[in-house]
Amino acid sequence: MPDMILREITSLLLPFIQMYGIYVVMHGHLSPGGGFAGGMILGVSLILYILVFGLDSCLRKVPHRLSSFLESFGTLWYAAVGLVGLLRGTSFLMNKGAGIDLGTPGELFSSGLIVVITIGVGIKVASTMLSLFYTLVEED
Amino acid sequence: MRKFLALLVVLPCLVAMIMLAAELPPYADPDNPTNNEVPTRYTEQGVEEAGATNIVTDIIIDYRAYDTLIETTVLFTALIAVMLTLKGAGNNHA
Question: Which of A30, A109, B37, B38 has the most CB atoms within 10 Å of its CB?
């Protein structure tokens, strides 16, 4: 589908879409959004890239193995962050109770483990969308 | 005949659900039973206890962190189901 208008508009829009997705993930603890919504925006931007530029060019940038790896990595990352609470002698997935400095509410780097978990969830949701699309589109 | 039987099952369910919906408390009434100490605690002390100004994030990643952890595995399971259906169990391609 070598449609010039579609390709040019998409290559103009993609950085903004992905920047917005990263913004929603990073500000999940400050404004509406979070890991699920931001990761979905990131994943959909990659799906748009596939639809416009073809499957092969996206497979060269993000191989299927990498997206499958990130997909499992997100869940394990979440569970691993939860172990911080256990290591500090409290219960699983503890945040303030584990003695972590929460910082000033309202700043970008605040709220302790919430940011770390949100980034993991964002990576996980984005790569899940991409892996699903790869699996559905690829025909052996 | 089958359509009649299906209607016989669906109609009582519809009546039951409408009766249930009519019994629901009015929307945004301060005397609703859901408006108890739990949302009060979240809105008043959520920012202080979890540190995020977005109270939804406070709830899903701090108070209800187990729920969100399992929720991410739901996506994982969905992907596994799609892969098993489309690729087949015998095919080891990533």
Answer: A30
Model-level pTM? 0.81
Q: What is the pLDDT of residues A55-68, one digit of tens each?
A: 888 888 889 899 98
Other Cβ atoms less than 10 A from the Cβ of B39: the count is: 13
ipTM at complex level: 0.77
Domain ranges of chain B: 2-87
Give residues 17 to 76 of A whose Cβ lies within 8 Å of B.
28-34, 64-65, 68, 71-72, 74-75
Euclidean distance between CA atoms A63 and A67, whole angstroms: 7
Q: How many domains does chain A have?
A: 1
Give the range of the structural domain holding residue A127, as residue numbers without chain letter.
4-137
